[in-house]
Design brief:
Elements lengths: L1 E5 L1 H18 L4 E4 L5 H8 L8 E4 L1 E3 L8 H10 L9 E2 L9 H7 L5 E4 L21 E4 L2 H6 L1 H4 L8 E4 L2 H5 L3 E6 L5 H9 L17 E6 L7
Bound molecules: 2-amino-2-deoxy-6-O-phosphono-alpha-D-glucopyranose.
């Protein structure tokens, strides 16, 4: 795992630069994209790139929420709008299609890149603690901590959905390259555990110690315990 710790602005600049490099080599790269607050400044930079041929797969989604509150809506509003990403090249996770998701990824040749954030409890996607390494795209019951984390988006922990859909750990770790972004002091323990905990299912992000090409981008606050 490569770790980059920088001031926030420089961090996003460098992460976007890595993606630009991947797109220079392969303009139609297949990218697994997370949503969430951490992604917003990155998306702002990605919108400047030529994304016309990019194939985008959503990493995780909430179940049973109003359409405008979905991760899909967040991604459409903040990444697709103002970019040249083509809606027909975007694959969204739904309760109807999640069992076919792995086939859809395989059909386009697998993931070139997975862009991840990290939960306060070190989840990746919605792979909560106790998710198996071998997991594929699945329905996931969300933990109290995750529902609390998303209170800002839904108004409160209680109004945050109890279930989500997520690419599995196996799906994510099969990506040819992985980058994970973490910002803010509330992520500091999760970042520390990701790098130093045993890679068992208690700390899902620690499974990222296994694949070869993983870069962790942390701002000074998220990297404070390293
Ligand atoms: C969520 C999402 C992840 C996201 C992470 C961090 O639960 N499923 O895709 O990366 O938590 O979210 P945020 O960036 O809002 O802190």
């Amino acid at each position: 795992m490569k770790t980059v710790i920088l001031e926030r602005e420089a961090l996003y600049e460098q992460a976007a630069g890595q993606i630009a490099g991947i797109l220079t080599e392969k303009p139609d790269a297949v990218i697994a994209m997370s949503a969430g607050r951490t992604m917003l400044p990155l998306w702002q930079k990605l919108r400047q790139l030529d994304l016309e041929a990019v194939r985008l797969f959503q990493v995780a989604e909430f179940i049973g929420t109003e359409e405008h509150l979905t991760m899909r809506a967040m991604t459409e509003k903040n990444l697709l709008e103002g970019s040249n990403l083509r809606p027909e090249n975007c694959f969204w996770l739904t309760e109807e299609n999640y069992q076919e998701y792995e086939n859809a990824i395989a059909d386009v040749g697998g993931l070139d890149l997975a862009v991840l954030g990290i939960g306060d409890n070190a989840h990746i996607g919605f792979n909560e603690p106790a998710t198996q390494f071998d997991s594929r795209t699945h329905r996931q019951k969300l933990t109290e901590k995750t529902r609390k984390q998303y209170g800002w988006h839904f108004g409160s922990e209680e109004s945050t959905p109890a279930w989500g859909l997520s690419m599995g750990i196996r799906t994510i770790t099969e990506a040819r390259k992985i980058m994970l972004l973490a910002c803010g002091e509330e992520k500091a323990q999760a970042v520390f555990d990701m790098l130093y905990a045993r890679n068992d299912s208690i700390i899902p992000a620690a499974f990222l110690q296994i694949p070869a090409e993983v870069t962790v981008y942390a701002d000074r606050e998220a990297g404070a315990k390293l």
